[in-house]
Amino acid sequence: MKYYAAQIKTKGEDKFINLFRALNPGMSFPIYFPKREMRERRKEKLVRKSLSVFPGYVFVEIGETQRIEACHWALRRTDGFIRFLRSNQDVAPLEGRDLELVLHFIKRTGHVAGVSKVYFNEADRIVVNEGPLKGLEGNIIRVDKRKGRAKIKLDLYGEAFLVDLAFEVMDPHKEP
Fold first, then answer.
1. What is the structure's pLDDT at 13?
2. Which uninterrupted H or E stretch holds 39?
3. Chain segment 137-152, per-residue pLDDT in tens
4. pLDDT tens digits, residue range 7-28?
5. pLDDT confidence of residue 158
6. 49 found inside a domain
């Protein structure tokens, strides 16, 4: 399996996937749009929202037996498509650290990256027990304990994204 990144109109990712499926019923390869769960306070209530991990990008999994060119052209013809990463002339599958990062959010966290379980050690450093932040501790650039958010830096094809992921503080002495 090879994974490709496609840039789509931001906030139109779900619409793009639905439109692609409607226009190309014979093409059955998976298209992923990783999301993250966030909690916000609105008028004294805690509201859960689902936001994109990589705003404006979807990831396509194309098997070895599928014709890659046909899949690429079908995606390009769908309204909302902007370009493939690196470029439309140099369409290359994700590899190395880029592939690991995308698979972290596609395979490990499911469709929506939920809330991580963390605690703070004696040096007041964040320690992740479970959740989408697990394995990304080195990418954390800022922690907001009050809001329960960690800002992480994600790199994809040399472009940096700053993304907030939710966490909940737990007692370090209790087993997860």
1. 93
2. strand 35-42
3. 888 899 888 888 899 9
4. 999 999 999 999 999 999 888 8
5. 78
6. yes
Contact (Cβ atoms closer than 8 angstroms) between residue 21 and residue 30: no
Inside any domain, residue 176 = no
Helical ranges in 5-147 per DSSP H: 13-23, 68-76, 96-103
pLDDT given for residue 33 in this prediction: 92
What pTM value is reported for the model?
0.84
Structural domain that includes position 12: 2-169
Cα end-to-end distance, the chain, whole Å: 34
16, amino acid identity? F
Residue segments in the chain with a per-residue pLDDT below the cut of 50 = 176
Q: Identify the CA nearest to 102 among candidates 151, 63, 155, 51.
A: 155
| Residue 175 domain flag | no
How many structural domains comprise the chain? 1
**Residue type (1 letter), 70:** A
Overall size of the chain counted in residues: 176
Using DSSP bridges, classify how beta strands 149-156 and 159-169 pair: parallel, antiparallel or unpaired: antiparallel
CATH number for 38: 3.30.70.940
Residue 117 inside a domain? The answer is yes
| Separation of CA 69 from chain center | 25
CA 76 to CA 150: how far, in whole Å?
Answer: 35
